[in-house]
Amino acid sequence: MTTEGIDNPAAYWGELWTSGRRYTRLSAPETALLSQYAGPGRERLALDIGCGDGALTRHLAGLGYQATGLDCTPAAPALTERSTGPVRYHCADIEAQQPPPLPQRAHALITTRLVYAFIKDKPAFLSRIRGLLAPGGLFWVVTPMARSLPPNHASIGITGEDEELLTSPWAMVRATDVGILRCYALRDGGGDDAGKETRGH
Ligand SMILES: C[S@@+](CC[C@H](N)C(=O)[O-])C[C@H]1O[C@@H](n2cnc3c(N)ncnc32)[C@H](O)[C@@H]1O
């Protein structure tokens, strides 16, 4: 798979989902790590960007969040499910010129798993995240690193430069490798770990 030439993410991803393509499943070590940083939802809002099959969105609801899964293609399996109870789905391109109609500075948790490498304008995306995240909220990013992948798959991972851009603005940065996936817990002032910066991985 290559990320080059994804001019129309809805069509690109729609074709992959429709052809039966599936992605690395959510693992127990990943969800345990996420629970450690995110804590119980207590009905606060969470947003899962690029929710795909909805496994992570449903997991967030299981932690007690009011979870919205957002995906750019209606062919994503989660978007074919009905929104019920604490799980809602929404079809929108997070990079669209118009931001999705979601509450601003309101989400205690924003997750994005296996998506960040595909974001075309990362600075604009990160500024959109900041607009959606509540003060002290957690931004959880799961992605492979390009250097851990075979050269013909490197574009589905992020570079060291991408990592610097992603992590440098946050007060708290934790990075943990789970297999070939790197999990980032990012938070600004106001959270439990605010001010205690670590960059271990
Ligand atoms: C590799 S899949 C990962 C799906 C899921 N997060 C997972 O961990 O299994 C990437 C997902 O992100 C969605 N996506 C990619 N670019 C997007 C964008 N700009 N806005 C919203 N969703 C996007 C795709 O439609 C696809 O469902």
Automatic annotation (TrEMBL):
CDD domains: AdoMet_MTases. One of its GO terms (biological process) is antibiotic biosynthetic process. GO terms for molecular function: methyltransferase activity. InterPro entries: SAM-dependent_MTases_sf. PANTHER family: TRANS-ACONITATE 2-METHYLTRANSFERASE-RELATED. This is Methyltransferase.
